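As a warm-up, study this chain.
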Amino acid sequence: MTSTTPRTITKSDPTQLRIEWQDGHETVFRAVELRRLCPCARCIDEITGRALLDPATVPEDLTQTDVQLVGRYAISVRFSDGHDTGIYPYPMLREHDPAAS
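Now compare it with the structure written out below.
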């Protein structure tokens, strides 16, 4: 069974975010990976679900400047490019684990 409830979320450095899930699995996202996954209305068309963000426009050296909990279901991230409107639900983060790709 895959857990979508985090045990800990650690901003280990400005370029990485680590999530340890209740089932013991660990997911590590680089800031650039999180930014490219952004589900906000500026990055994903709300009606069609079509991506509006061109992943190639996100710099590889992007960093996260802040990470906040959103209730008990998600996180929000502020990036060094100024983007901060995405809310990342825990199930989405688990589903998009870079190591599982």
